[in-house]
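Predict the 3D structure for this chain.
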Amino acid sequence: MFSEVMTNALYKDILISFSIFLAFLLLRKVFVSYVFKFLLRMAGKIPTDVLKNILTVFERPARVLFIILGLYFSLLYLPYVDAAQDIITRLFRSSIIVLVAWGIYNLDIVYS
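Done. Predicted structure below.
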């Protein structure tokens, strides 16, 4: 009986974790497009196109960042991941560095 309760609690935690990731996955395009439309509208008030170009090239990395955030939060929600939390945090930080490098690479393509 105790193992059945633990199994049900584990399945519930896994389902909630998967739901967190799925919510981030489904809402990434909507959230990022609204934020970037707002930022582009604010950048339209500046007479140069530099900020518009920067925002445009970082849109796809921002969508991927939203997926990585969902994966990060869903993994942190899992109950038995306490031992691997340091590794998960390091991978998350490394992925942010990769996404910034991807955006800078895209920016270099625009200006070359």
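Residues 2-111 form one domain.
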